[in-house]
Please model this.
Amino acid sequence: MTIDMSMPGSSGLLTAVGKRDMKFFSNQYVLVLTGCAGIGGFLFGYDTGVISGALLYIRDEFPVIKDNYFLQETIVSMAIVGAIIGAAGGGWINDAYGRKKSTLLADLLFALGSLVMCAAGGPYILILGRLLVGLGVGIASVTAPVYIAEAAPTEFRGGLVATNVLMITGGQFFSYLINLGFTEVPGTWRWMLGVAAVPAVIQFVLMLYLPESPRWLYWRDEKAKAIAVLEKIYDSNRLEEEVELLASSSMHEFQADNTASYLDVFKSKELRLAFFAGAGLQAFQQFTGINTVMYYSPTIVQMAGFTSNKLALLLSLIVAAMNAAGTIVGIYLIDRCGRRRLALTSLSGVVISLVILAMSFILQSSSSLCMDGMNGSCQGTLGYFAVAGLALYIAFFSPGMGPVPWAVNSEIYPEAYRGMCGGMSATVNWISNLVVAQTFLSIVGLVGTGMTFLIIAGITVLAFIFVAVYVPETKGLSFEEVEQLWKKKAGGRHDNCQSLLGDAA
Ligand code: BGC
Model:
């Protein structure tokens, strides 16, 4: 089929769009592309999850690590430091070199880092390996959602990006399974860390057969190649419409000469508004405490009075399984209820769960409520309440605040800034992740577990207000429609595609 590539920009953009009713499972090509890109998400989950278990065995092998908490913390958090750097730089690499090369680079870092850790003879090489996989995680955390979103039909774009989040939560579950399953055979940790090279190599090979993102190609003026990719996704009617949308988009106004700069984000009102919404979502995803639960669930379970190590690990595996299962519900709901409703419902449930969790800990520490002679059973009951609060927390978080920030960030920025802004807000996510992980136990030590969860509940109320006020609904909108939406919010300018450029220049 031939497409007229000289089509003028359509001012009736919002009305020109026909019926969009493709179904999630009807497009094998996009599903395969999502599955391959999602291997990056899997490695994100696996590499951040596996270290807690691997560390137990590493400590046994290296006495110098066993006696040094600082070294242990550094081994754990170096991957997050790497992810902060990887996400910040990865955004720029995405815009300058494309989604495909970014994924290949992430794979090289994943594979190299895994092999370095596998062969490490001491703590410093291990730390280097963690830094390398962290860089890979950071780049993948920006690239996979954007690559998937740019190939996705609008009607189930959210579900496809949420599928990448399922790969993250699936990777975490798998790493916990490995942690629990592996025995204390010397050298076990080398397998646990080294095995992550395998999916990285698989993704590298698969990516060689997958195309560059059609939207990125179009923006770089490789229109014929872009259309060849779109032809694999859409039938001829829809193809024409999609190409018309691309042609009418403002992306050609800022041609791909790499003039986009990080500073533009603060100079242009549209970008500023979009970045505020995206980065805020990412920060709140972390400050509403998901990783206190993911990283410390065994500790929380023990704080609630269940002292067996094995039971604590088993319960944390159940938490990870619930998290993955909940993400599947999110995939189903995100394009039906929309991003806002899903996030707001999720946050409401999270507040309730946190209050239950907090109250069980607070009541448990004030034994006056448990009558003499009944103290044991009363404490036990409160312990069960705490675990129920934890389960409820995951049930509400996982379908909403898990996938929504990643989905929204993959779709709210204009083409020339999609990688850059997505990278900046992923950096906000990783920095917030580090802050929460590093301070949770100290805050518990300072004000108590119950009070800490109450503080997180307070932050979650702020998150609710933030989403209600600043996050627009992007369900079912094309990228072009999203651009119009920000222009309108920035001051009612509908067709002034120059505004970003003009402001930024
Ligand atoms: C978050 C991760 C988190 C995971 C757990 C992701 O969306 O970005 O930080 O560990 O969800 O479900």
Confidence is low (pLDDT under 50) at residues 1-16, 493-505. The first helix runs from residue 13 to 16. The pocket of beta-D-glucopyranose is lined by residues 165, 168-169, 285, 290-291, 294, 323, 402, 429, 433 (CB under 6 Å).
